[in-house]
Batch of 2 targets.
Target 1
Amino acid sequence: MTTLAALNAMPASDFGAAIAPVFENAPWIAEAVAAKRPLASLTAFHREMMALVGGQSDEALVRFLRGHPRLSPDTLRKGTTAESTAEQTAAGIGALDAATIAKLNVLNAAYDDKFGYPFILAVRCASLPTMLATFERRLAATPEAERAEALMEIEAISWMRLLDRVQPAPTGSLSTHVLDTARAMPAAGLGVELWGQDASGQSICLERFTTDANGASSRDLLGQGRLRAGTYEWRYDTPTYFATKGYPTPARSFLGKISVAFSVWNPEEHFHVPLLLTPGSYMTYRGS
Amino acid sequence: MTTLAALNAMPASDFGAAIAPVFENAPWIAEAVAAKRPLASLTAFHREMMALVGGQSDEALVRFLRGHPRLSPDTLRKGTTAESTAEQTAAGIGALDAATIAKLNVLNAAYDDKFGYPFILAVRCASLPTMLATFERRLAATPEAERAEALMEIEAISWMRLLDRVQPAPTGSLSTHVLDTARAMPAAGLGVELWGQDASGQSICLERFTTDANGASSRDLLGQGRLRAGTYEWRYDTPTYFATKGYPTPARSFLGKISVAFSVWNPEEHFHVPLLLTPGSYMTYRGS
Amino acid sequence: MTTLAALNAMPASDFGAAIAPVFENAPWIAEAVAAKRPLASLTAFHREMMALVGGQSDEALVRFLRGHPRLSPDTLRKGTTAESTAEQTAAGIGALDAATIAKLNVLNAAYDDKFGYPFILAVRCASLPTMLATFERRLAATPEAERAEALMEIEAISWMRLLDRVQPAPTGSLSTHVLDTARAMPAAGLGVELWGQDASGQSICLERFTTDANGASSRDLLGQGRLRAGTYEWRYDTPTYFATKGYPTPARSFLGKISVAFSVWNPEEHFHVPLLLTPGSYMTYRGS
Amino acid sequence: MTTLAALNAMPASDFGAAIAPVFENAPWIAEAVAAKRPLASLTAFHREMMALVGGQSDEALVRFLRGHPRLSPDTLRKGTTAESTAEQTAAGIGALDAATIAKLNVLNAAYDDKFGYPFILAVRCASLPTMLATFERRLAATPEAERAEALMEIEAISWMRLLDRVQPAPTGSLSTHVLDTARAMPAAGLGVELWGQDASGQSICLERFTTDANGASSRDLLGQGRLRAGTYEWRYDTPTYFATKGYPTPARSFLGKISVAFSVWNPEEHFHVPLLLTPGSYMTYRGS
């Protein structure tokens, strides 16, 4: 894994070798973006590369799309790029049961036939049911809408591959903010935990704090490069909070501990997640 | 464990023996409510008994409150009613560390001194931090407010003891209803699971269904006497739902699976829990 | 104005004459749908007609779109269908200032040039700023996306013209339901008013009631054919409700009376509008 | 009307004369707080005075409560302080119909009889139905709870009288922030108006702006001493916003313009009012 600084400093040929696998069979993208350096963030690198993808002629774009491998056990058996092999294998494409393989074959054939290029999906983010549901929905789309979706998936795939290879800029972090909307006041003194995964994928508690007078953590969390792409979870100890505030006795309270699971797609961004809380309801959303 | 029908039919003396332990050292309550039979539900039985508690003279009420044991390792060592022993033991009162015992002693002494009766709490619903937070808050209350709280706790304790002894009426059940508020439509075709505990306290999936055209389960869940007091959890498979509907690609979606934990205090009631869902937010509440 | 029953019973030629003006220069739609009678609702009539529109060949569809008049003072000066004349005039197209006319001319020319048919918009629902904002947005769309939007506008225009000519089926109505989410209970005893417009467009109070024990009106409102397409408003007397419940003294309450404005597009549908209320917040949505 | 600076600088006797009428028949409060000067805000002055009120002995407190005039036409006829006369007159106590007077007499007599002092209410914030609903609710309260409520009303009355006499510190202001929660993004480019009252009580538009890239006004509104206690209203031009963003055609959109009415009780505070918006729902609350 390299760093942004190293990426900006290395010779163009090294840069090409380091970055080319981010897209399937399209080394020209890395070559072209090399000339744009230095860039301030992975987000900026990725935006430049996607602009190159989107700026192609219709004909070149279809050729580019056709350069992608099918999602299929056959692909794995016959061999493809190291990246796609790893991704498809991890998504279980190599271990499907016969009925699912048959279904996938039918979908793949119908898709190629309709659109003229293979079905492209960021499989690292998709469970098998999600994958099949998405496949069926997109098979029914218009060619124009489907091309837009294929490009969005390439955006997702290349972004994740970029994150595998380069340390993101340390600009992202997390925060939460709890309002006790029944009293129109910040929920001060509420115990909060932030959970994520350790290197082996085990759930672990990353941070533990009590909300300050403003109902928030007093600082941003997982900042300075500690935030990673992945899934996180806020856990709010609402029963103790309600007991402390003299809300209905715990024996009769409706809400248990509140857990909010969310995904960080871009670890260079800030993710603010407010919680609007009352003894009988809560709301959460991605804030700004 | 007996049934409502049996409770309504048994001789008054048997009724007294069966029900007296629901309150601490106050067999007269069971005796008096025996004359009100038959009653249609446990809720009705409990309401009648609490009316008797609340209808006492000031003097009798204080005597009744004084009949309750302290929350304390000393109580367990010296012996008290079987019910309180079991509850305090399960809440960990018998295994506190020395610092917590010292703190509890100070709180108990200050409380008795201020209010003239022991601190009463439905410990089955309270973790140790909740218990201490509640104790400190209530110690600061006015005598009148505190008496109201003590009665609410007695209501909770006696209700749980009643549920231990008698099968509730089969009138309660659960339901959920999911609205896709971004589109102002029901969220049809969303996978939902209902989780609870089995007899040994292990989390298990009790029901699994897909929302119908109205965004709901097509029938009430855990009805006909299957609902128990305790904690439950709805789990909504929002990522698959969003993928099926063509909402932002899973790779960039903010929300993970949604989990809503809630408590059923009275299994003779219906608990309706709507979910208002968008790709960037959700709200939940106890509906009606 | 005729009725559904009359529409179902009249000779095909009369039906054609009555219904043809619902679409611009496309009498064949009314002729074809005449054969589908009887139909149970205006909604069903409209769905059948839109299916005919959508089922045309590409070529026929473009011809149909070209049959629509431009939104322009020139159109009014040169003369067009009675319906479009009335709609454009009411939307103020005949009384635009010179700068807006110039802008509209530029937009119209660019649109025709790009898409090959005139810009179609349901102007009865659009203020001038909305109209221009929509025009600019759609001018930037892809041909395929824009064709879908044009059809959605034709759906809106024809639906409103149908409502002008035929009494809708008496199946629609309104309801509201107020939850006091801070207490996890229905908001019983809350004063509610329903406002709409009288025949001359003046705001009037149509219904006034107090929520029942379930937090709702005890019956559906404006049912049995009284609901019209148009804008309505719920007004909730939250200050009196909070005062009655002993919530923070009115002098310090944050929320004033709550007003929720909404549009009824199809008066054959039921519109349920819940309000989730606390002293410091509220949420509203189209329920089901 | 004087200023905070003048209040801090004037001789104690002038201060007493200026501030005494803030409380009914209790000039000692103004005298005692004179010695605490200088203070940084009206909020601080008021907090000091309320601390003096709350610090009285039980006996002195009851005497203080008894110093308040009844809410009654009789009070106005017989004469009372200039302040109470003005407030009761403006609240319509001098122009009640016979039935309401009779009802008020019964309530007043029962209240005095139960609590030993007159019913105290900040009538400037209460409509007649609110006033009667509050009276009935409080008549049923316990003596202790009712004393707390009476003090809260005195807090409200004295605060409003203080605001009549002294310019508040210029620390308060308003802000709003609109999130398009369906897209998990700020609602940029939304037209917003802030409405309030002019000197004669007429509704006027005080500010008009378009939300910036963060979904907010780019500066706080009504700052630097322009915020007054009173009622305000945000008006959001959601239909134009949805049209610009390509949300469902206006003809079929559910939500009309959104209006959020709220009260500013303390013009030295900041009032932040977020709006969480989707095409089918919205939520608002007092933020922080």
Target 2
Amino acid sequence: MADTPFVEEVELHGHIIDSLLLPKVLDVILTRGGSYVLKDIKIGQRGSDPTHARIEVRAQSADQLQEILGIIHDHGAIPVHVADCETVPADMDGAFPEGFYCTSNFKTQVRLGGVWVDVRDQEMDCGVVVDLAAKSARCVPMADACTGERVVVGLRGVRVFPEASQRRTDLFEFMASPVSSEKPKGATVREIAAAMRRTRESGEKILAVLGPAVVHTGGSEWVGRLIRHGYLNVLFAGNALATHDMEQALYGTSLGVSLDRGLPAEEGHEHHLRTINTIRRHGSIAAAVSRGKLGSGIMYECVKAGVPFVLAGSIRDDGPLPEVITDVLQAQREMRRHLPGVGFCLMVATTLHSIAVGNLLPAWVKVACVDINPATVTKLMDRGSVQTIGIVSDAEPFLRSLVNELQLN
Amino acid sequence: MADTPFVEEVELHGHIIDSLLLPKVLDVILTRGGSYVLKDIKIGQRGSDPTHARIEVRAQSADQLQEILGIIHDHGAIPVHVADCETVPADMDGAFPEGFYCTSNFKTQVRLGGVWVDVRDQEMDCGVVVDLAAKSARCVPMADACTGERVVVGLRGVRVFPEASQRRTDLFEFMASPVSSEKPKGATVREIAAAMRRTRESGEKILAVLGPAVVHTGGSEWVGRLIRHGYLNVLFAGNALATHDMEQALYGTSLGVSLDRGLPAEEGHEHHLRTINTIRRHGSIAAAVSRGKLGSGIMYECVKAGVPFVLAGSIRDDGPLPEVITDVLQAQREMRRHLPGVGFCLMVATTLHSIAVGNLLPAWVKVACVDINPATVTKLMDRGSVQTIGIVSDAEPFLRSLVNELQLN
Amino acid sequence: MADTPFVEEVELHGHIIDSLLLPKVLDVILTRGGSYVLKDIKIGQRGSDPTHARIEVRAQSADQLQEILGIIHDHGAIPVHVADCETVPADMDGAFPEGFYCTSNFKTQVRLGGVWVDVRDQEMDCGVVVDLAAKSARCVPMADACTGERVVVGLRGVRVFPEASQRRTDLFEFMASPVSSEKPKGATVREIAAAMRRTRESGEKILAVLGPAVVHTGGSEWVGRLIRHGYLNVLFAGNALATHDMEQALYGTSLGVSLDRGLPAEEGHEHHLRTINTIRRHGSIAAAVSRGKLGSGIMYECVKAGVPFVLAGSIRDDGPLPEVITDVLQAQREMRRHLPGVGFCLMVATTLHSIAVGNLLPAWVKVACVDINPATVTKLMDRGSVQTIGIVSDAEPFLRSLVNELQLN
Amino acid sequence: MADTPFVEEVELHGHIIDSLLLPKVLDVILTRGGSYVLKDIKIGQRGSDPTHARIEVRAQSADQLQEILGIIHDHGAIPVHVADCETVPADMDGAFPEGFYCTSNFKTQVRLGGVWVDVRDQEMDCGVVVDLAAKSARCVPMADACTGERVVVGLRGVRVFPEASQRRTDLFEFMASPVSSEKPKGATVREIAAAMRRTRESGEKILAVLGPAVVHTGGSEWVGRLIRHGYLNVLFAGNALATHDMEQALYGTSLGVSLDRGLPAEEGHEHHLRTINTIRRHGSIAAAVSRGKLGSGIMYECVKAGVPFVLAGSIRDDGPLPEVITDVLQAQREMRRHLPGVGFCLMVATTLHSIAVGNLLPAWVKVACVDINPATVTKLMDRGSVQTIGIVSDAEPFLRSLVNELQLN
């Protein structure tokens, strides 16, 4: 091992000690079988000072070195010897060239003609397509790759700015880590309300991703208030949320359960299906509203307030409703279309849609994910959404408290 | 099998069809390998009429017949040919004679000198000790059996009145069956509030069994209001609930987490321990209140309002607090002492204590069990507590809604 | 209420007492505010005898009566006065006429020209389209309704045969009800193995619905053996299962976690994406197999054994793989195409796909649903799949035991 | 704030960067409202080199400074200016003086007469009692404090060696962090088997903490093999595990469920109670074994192999069995008595006992905690047991795989 020639020098910059980036990088090197020499380190003497480190990474094979460099790259470690990024033209539609650079959800730059250029439409698990003439770059999902587009391959000339390399300044991020039902709910609700107020004040949009339990537990009224008061500007959901909501408006039940009496209406699923059929007969939710058939609920409020909604299809859907986008790639594209300008995302009681939207959001959009099942919250955070705060709580009571905290009457 | 001589005739009476008792009895007979002949059945023509059935149970062996009779006995099926119950004197302390009759939590009678006598102190998993002279009978836990006491053995002369043999008249029982987080919470809270009001009006006591998440999630304030307004008359809890509650009063944290800021106080467990130490130094919670050391929280409100509390010990306890009863049998006895007069029991966020108390309660005391973990709720209901309504929800928001519904300001 | 004129007589036939159908029907009538008179009841004297009941249902309004009749109809209660079913021509594509009869997953018949005709393609939440000339009827999903087709409306001339009206003869159904992790696993595995053997011997197909945790936990090897030995004849899954499986074949990791070493490969998601890209570049999974790129795993075994698979898309999919059907309605149709002949369905570690497939299956196809999360199992069973046996267990160890029980080496 | 005089210099030594100790310490200082100056830092250039850091901690009040110092002390940060520890004589039995030093589960030393002395019986949440004459120190639980004993107060002269300050060298610790059911089970089982083998080879004891689901799921056979082959040397459990185990031996059921047939024996709880009564009549489990009444199962194997067991009581216990220690403090003492020499602890399917034992174990005893409920595993790890590896899996299949991996036939 003495004369290992598989060596590369990398740099790390920022709040890399208290943000745990440096420790993570060193840990990756060691647990992958490599070793390191800290060539130079300038530690910020005070909390506000950034730290700069230069690390020589050593490995026992070229493959091992590449594996290590690939992982630590996502933590912000970039080779000292910079060069322009390498691109290869896509040789077919719908797939990238082998070796394509695979994106994270962190802010990313690529080096083009000696200049670092921001990658637009940042999204994890995409490729980066560059326009050499325009000196621009953007994230492109695999399915949307087109023959001839120049796709970035390898790590050279790509740098990533993990969120964690900025100082943790507010409570929000601090609460992000542990998922537990045994937490003070009042403080959590206050934090989320504050984040929503800040988002609104800054002119950014609040996106809600809602599952059917919002309606089952009786939370429609509270969502309606969020919409009417401008605290919900885009809605992503599925066929189930919309149908249960409109079933409640039309029949007073949600999946057949009466919200007033709590009594299970055993024929429940029939109401569900008749609701879908009725809306299909009207042609659209908006038509049902304009003709006076639908007069309350979340979907009604969206139509009235002009809040755009994307209803994405799933294989367990009945019907579905006319607005449901049954092609999942098309649904992803439609969701992406609404993301620019979103500053905060509230996810309540949905696993599938939460994870789908989590995949689309850049890391700098704050997310609050509320679910009574800790597994949902954990799953989302495991996906690499460091910006997510997880709250294990019940949908209706949570929304009630949130509306109360925001003083929406 | 043609000439099976292992036969016994049993009777069932009450709302045995819509309460599912008759179907259950027939099902048990068949699945245990027996067979039946319905000798006589008079079905109530209307919903309010009781049904009477006489069933010949047939088995292929004496053991099988006894097994079947033992199970259906708990569903209210009693032999047609009645006789006095059989008793055997206990031959040692702390154990029953072999073959002792094992109690359920349903109203039970034993036949003494030709007369059916109510069994007192009804509790599941006990023996029945009779006083032949006084013609009385009572449930006795195994550990409390005394040499010479006459203990009922076998099923003869014992009859059980399952709750289900009475008509289901209100929503409460109706909601008892399915455990789900996806239910309208408003209706549930209204039902529980109504049951609590009825209990108070009827002069019965409301028992609360609380776990530490009540404090963690920020629910102390709401429990305090229940106490001050007379909606909580006895408290069962453990060392943890009481300590977290007093830690909040003394330090503003619960297991080190600040309820106001939500910020984890990492030294958290230290506050916890110092709280216990302080109370131990005072000698009792009441002493800490009277000396002005403790001025808020659940335990303070209990002391102020004269609400009795039983703190039962567990092997994971730190300290524990002076009032904690470290011997579990002694703790069970102390809890039993407070049960007479209890008409409603509210269990929030505790598995161990909920199951322990569920074991002690007769089936006619209504129980509402609130937990964010469906497993806790299911476990309690599996234990045979048909009178339990399970609510999968979050402690603080639930209590807040309950206090709101009861209009306790 | 004395002179309520809202009355209808219904009949119930079969093992309606021990199967709980009669009690359920009476319960529905009462809890919906109606009342009943049992006009006639002939109870089977022995376990094997069917019972016949004639019930006069009384309500206080026409609506209430219709509501009650609608619910009890699904439990097999049919009006005494029979008539042909009523049909109305569909007035548009993709929606039914108002008042359409909404199907259950039980065997159903409609009366055409005085004759009871079986409804084909039985599936819940569909409409029934009849061909009056051919005297035939079939279930049609809402989205597939065509203008002019005659659709059954109302309950007249429709009868349902709930599974429960047949005797419970084997353990399988008996275990169906309670969902718990605290059950003897050996007995459960034996039961499932026996059901799979019976299915194979009867010439029916075994359908598997698998989620990605099958691969994560290391279960691919066991699924491979099921395929090779003919115990898995159709596979339904999503993009994730197939990708993780092929990632393991190509990189030795599953979502970046090495199955051998258990070490998280932090770049994990990259392997995932590169796997999809590689297969997309090959054009299909089969092409990757035939060119020798893919040489092991579940998908490889399917291709080799000619086991058909349906990969249904979802909005959280990366890529997706070329075979993934991105339109969810199309995916449902493709799944339906494979259902005829399926006699047993094994669902492991997937919520979305399990519920989707549960919706498509008729009630007489036995289903075993294995998941480590009790909520998944409960959800499926709540959807009305009485034929489902739920097992709360871990994917890999369960599959290992199953393969062992089936002695597949 | 410019001239803040609340300053203290602390030192940190070891693998404090890749073990995350330094980042944690800096983070605590900042989030508690303090600030820091890194006076000196010598970073290990290579992975094997330790790092040494000297940090000036600044706060805005004496209280804040003490709070910060208290927290970072548990992460190994000790004041530069050392002095002997301060002690105060206990002024009463069963409680410590105010300000007592509260222990962690990490190796700890106190300075007595200028010399650093190891604290014996390391256990979290205790006080430290010193014998000045003998220059010795030991952890003492609060309830066991005696008047006159010298108790350490404050942080001076106390230093802590967090486990994390040693390099992470094996997979075991690496897997410790994330709790998920979606992990390769084979690798996990191999790791645990290897740790058990190492423990046995080093002459240390293996402690098992088992809950009743071990028996319910059918795992007794596998536990028996561990005992017979010397892989289980001490058993901690409760009344339930022992009763279910012996119920299986006596009746072939566990809580009334037949392990062979899976059929619920509805009278189940009766078997449970009769088992307890029988053992109480024999006087002890050992007596039941020696008289031939008990001939199989976990408790039988323990008696035969001379494996000591501690059965700790809880308030939900029926009976309990004669060996159950009903006083929880006494039970804790008895468990402590068996801890010396324990090198590995396997916890399966028990929340209460796992947490209780986790509280008693020093941080250097490796723990594997297996439960099907992720909440149990998370709870244990939240309690500060960094040495715990959590496995979300099913009891019986896990134990079967473990026994298989250890090749115990």
